[in-house]
Amino acid sequence: MAGKLIIIGFGPGSEKHFTERAKEAIRECDCILGYKTYIDLVKNLIEDKEIISTGMSEEVERAQAAVKIAEAGKKVAVISSGDAGVYGMAGLIYEVLAEKGWDPKTGFEVEVVPGISAINSCASLLGAPIMHDACTISLSDHLTPWELIARRIEAAAMADFVIALYNPKSGRRMRQIEEAQKILLKYRSRETPVGLVKSAYRERQHVVITTLEEMFNHEIGMLTTVIIGNSTTFVYSGKMITPRGYQRKYSLNAEVQKLRLHERLKQENEPWALHGGQEKIQTPATLAEEALNKINKPITPVFEDIFMVAVSPGVANKRFTPNQLLVLAKVAGEKGIIEYSTDHQIHLQIPTSNPDHIVEELRNAGFLLSPIGDVLTVKACDFCDGEKTGAIPIAEQLYERLNGIQLPKELKVGINGCGMACYGAVKEDIGLIFRQGKFDLFIGAKPVGRTFHAGQLVEEGIEPEKVIGIIEAILQEYKEKAHPNERLYKFFKRVKVLCGYPYKDMTPDFEIPPAVCGD
Ligand code: SAH
């Protein structure tokens, strides 16, 4: 039996907006895969099917599983909300297929069933905000560098696109939407209409029309799409409307139009258009000039990069000197951000086109510098202000060898100088506790969420000279085998044995209901 893989976008969420082909395709399939919230949304349609529901961040496993099922000769559907080809599963599945060398002529059939994407469903509830050139930008920087997202926002803002912001905010990503607003305000007025649509065509649908200035007075979450109007978008009677441009040629309140039908496409009546090979016609083109003026706001300080770096006075040393604080203030300047982080570091974000001189100044002030992102961060206690010297050399060596290395997901190695563990190393992804001249090793803490748990003790009494080698081996295995974005504890749970250490479930044995924004 020939397998088939169908990737289905089921639209915003209500069955009425599910296309006929999507319903039919689900009927055709033996097995359905999807994120559990989506499976629930479409449960009426899939009662008799084999269902494999997974967590939200398990897309890669889901795509691989779907491909395997189709290879085994079954018909399988993968469901995505909205359109599966818009930040959905379609691309990832084709990427997995490309990795495997799938050939449409000889391999199983693949079909993508289109659905109504959030930009369309949300626009319909707001009125008609995307009547003119529009774009979508996802604010999720889990897989895309923030710098690139910021540039795209800037470019779209500058070019006067209507912008639909997907993934505007989640429990862990709060700042992106604030940064986006700052960029937009460089090019658009504070009064620009903004539509916030949460859970379009779902049970908890909520629609708000506000302005760019006031958008944060309303709730924005991971089920919201934010639609930013262009410079001509207006609000009328609770509806957000972007003009198509008819007013340039027509009088919308007159029954008889000034321009007759045959006159409407004449060059002199479209002075704003690009006319084939001719000089621009000089007419008092008030409307055209008006339109251009609206977007010709100052376009100067564009594309200054944001340099991001983490600094600390030392691995064990936690004391800043007054001069170091002065240097931080100086390099951050008026526009930079200085932020205290949870890893005993200060994070800097500085708009600059020349980060080298900043690096030099920070180094001269005696700072240790580390990259920010999906990298390893060494976090140590202060070894009782340097009184307990035993483990300091190892902490420093760990920092030198491993701090800042790229990993599938951010990872923290905590080190404590004694068994008191007052800095809580056991709650980091990897924890090391120095005790009676040797190290105890903990791995796999779940450092976030309501089902937080400490790491499991995997080995006691490790000789100091062996510690770095062991950590490197763990990281090597993690780097090679983990999925992108898979945190160490999830990876350990999935592979069951890491560097020879068997996995033990550390999840609390009492029931903790999942939080709204994930697990
Ligand atoms: N494939 C989906 C997008 C997935 S990305 C689509 O085409 O619509 C997830 C983001 O989509 C959410 O953060 C939100 O911004 C948007 N979204 C998806 N469904 C939505 C809905 N019913 N109402 C409002 N926004 C929605």
Automatic annotation (TrEMBL):
Entries under InterPro entries matching the protein: 4pyrrol_Mease, 4pyrrol_Methylase_sf, 4pyrrole_Mease_sub1, 4pyrrole_Mease_sub2, Cbl_synth_CobJ/CibH_dom, NO2/SO3_Rdtase_4Fe4S_dom, NO2/SO3_Rdtase_4Fe4S_sf, NO2/SO3_Rdtase_FeS/sirohaem_BS
Gene3D superfamilies: Cobalt-precorrin-4 Transmethylase, Domain 1, Methyltransferase, Cobalt-precorrin-4 Transmethylase, Domain 2, Sulfite Reductase Hemoprotein, domain 1
Domain Nitrite/sulphite reductase 4Fe-4S, first and last residues per copy: 382-495
Ranges that cross the membrane: none
Signal sequence extent: none
Residues of the Tetrapyrrole methylase domain: 4-215
SUPFAM superfamilies: Nitrite and sulphite reductase 4Fe-4S domain-like (SSF56014), Tetrapyrrole methylase (SSF53790)
Pathway(s) it belongs to: Cofactor biosynthesis; adenosylcobalamin biosynthesis
CDD domains, sorted: Precorrin_3B_C17_MT
An annotated Gene Ontology molecular function: 4 iron, 4 sulfur cluster binding
Record keywords: 4Fe-4S, Cobalamin biosynthesis, Iron, Iron-sulfur, Metal-binding, Methyltransferase, S-adenosyl-L-methionine, Transferase
GO biological process, one term: cobalamin biosynthetic process
UniProt EC number: 2.1.1.131
Pfam family, one: TP_methylase
NCBIfam families (UniProt xref): cobJ_cbiH
Annotated protein name in UniProt: Precorrin-3B C(17)-methyltransferase
Organism this protein belongs to: Calidifontibacillus erzurumensis
